[in-house]
Amino acid sequence: MSLKRDYFEIRLESIGGLGANLSGKILGEYGALYLGLNASSFSSYGSEKRGSPVKAYIRYAKENTPIRANSPVKVPDILAIFHLALADKENIMAGVSENTSVVVNTDKQPDEVRDILKMYAGKLYCIDALKIALETKSRINMVMLGAIAKTNDFMDIEKLKQCIENTIGKKYPKALEQNINAIQCGYENVIFKDISPDNKYDYIVAKDIESRWGYKNAPIGGINTLFGNSVCNDISASREGYVPIFKKEKCINCGLCDTTCPDFAFQFVRGKYKDKESMINLGIDYHHCKGCMRCVEICPTKALEKALEKDVDIFKSHKRNKDLIVDKLDFEKTGASSFVTSESYTENINI
Ligand code: SF4
Ligand code: SF4
């Protein structure tokens, strides 16, 4: 099968750490060297690579059609979403129409995914890439590549495997079998649903990215009021499927997790531990947790454990740091027996 149209565009939406940048490079090489097409690819990401949004753009064209565009892909033929938590944080559905194949890494069913994405229309392919990556001891991006190959006839899965063999297979030969297996599983296990335009959600027009601040509205002195670790920043989309779970009964309030956490996610208040004045650990504000697991590694008592985010309802019991200072916190929910408010912040808490 060959490319039916002169021009074909792919956009990958991800966060740093899931391998979208590498996937983009592989898809570029795959198009040029294995499908006989003209191809180009590039990625865009911020300074802090792990956990921050990443977009990769790939263009294919027939042999005699030159690729002259070097700009982001606004109306993709394939949109691959490596991380569903980006749905309400980035404008990832821009340009998606009934002609777009949307590949999503998710353990959810297509109808639910459509609602999460507010998808106007298109061909929806759902794949539980995290689960398959764990089972095959491979990586999410390999599974996603297999699922992407499923969307169009011209994307030959065997040629994709050859491409992997000759690229990352040479660099990491011991992982080749797992990677090939993950691609095949991604290809075979997608759940497909064709969604027609039905007025449930609107088509989203891709706009040029506008800078948030310019000379008219930038804060005086060039102060950045939205820096990375501030209380107003929700960085939960940076997690790659794992969260630390806090086991209060094992905690000795040593504070190592708090000094280790790069995002100030822990909630400590003044209180008493073993009849001595101490700072008491109340757990994690998951809005600020990017799932790096440094706290799990440092904790001396295993009071912090790594868990799959989809298996635990972290938002059922967790409190925001800002609520801790502004509102009354019901300690019964946290397992303790008294209240703390902004006024009584220094009251003793016996745990
Ligand atoms: S490192 Fe572990 S024991 Fe120490 S305060 Fe944090 S959770 Fe508790
Ligand atoms: S995993 Fe632990 S150390 Fe990393 S951001 Fe979350 S709470 Fe902080």
List keywords for this structure.
single chain; 351 residues; alpha/beta; Pyruvate-ferredoxin Oxidoreductase, domain 3; Alpha-Beta Plaits; 2 domains; two-stranded antiparallel ribbon; 13 strands; 22% strand; disordered C terminus; binds iron/sulfur cluster
Written overview of the protein:
The longest helix has 15 residues, at 20-34. This protein has 351 residues and is an alpha/beta fold. It has two domains: 7-195, Pyruvate-ferredoxin Oxidoreductase, domain 3, CATH 3.40.920; 236-340, Alpha-Beta Plaits (2-Layer Sandwich). Helix 5 packs antiparallel against helix 7 (176-188). The protein contains twelve helices and 13 strands. The chain has a seven-stranded mixed beta sheet, with helices on both faces. Strands 8-11 form a two-stranded antiparallel sheet. The protein has a two-stranded antiparallel ribbon with strand order 9-10. The model is unreliable at 324-351 (pLDDT under 50). Residues 251-257, 281, 298-299, 301, 303-304 line the site of one iron/sulfur cluster.
Which CATH architecture of the largest domain is right? 3-Layer(aba) Sandwich
Task: Count the DSSP helices.
Answer: 12
Class by alpha and beta content: alpha/beta
**Which word captures the global form?**
globular
Q: SSE order, as H and E?
A: EHEEEEHEHHHHHEEHEEHEHHEHE
Rg, Å, rounded: 23 Å
Number of domains: 2
Write out the strand line-up for the largest beta sheet, numbering strands in chain order. Answer: 2-3-1-4-5-6-7
What is the CATH class of the largest domain? Alpha Beta
> Could you tell me the number of beta strands?
13
* Unreliably modeled segments: 324-351
Helical fraction equals 25-40%
Full CATH superfamily name of the largest domain: Pyruvate-ferredoxin oxidoreductase, PFOR, domain III
CATH topology of the largest domain, by name, is: Pyruvate-ferredoxin Oxidoreductase, domain 3
List of distinct ligands in this structure: iron/sulfur cluster
Proportion of beta-strand residues: 15-25%
Averaged pLDDT: 84
For the termini, the CA-CA separation is: 67 Å
Report the sheet with the most strands, covering strand number, pairing sense and barrel closure: 7 strands, mixed
In quaternary terms, these chains amount to single chain
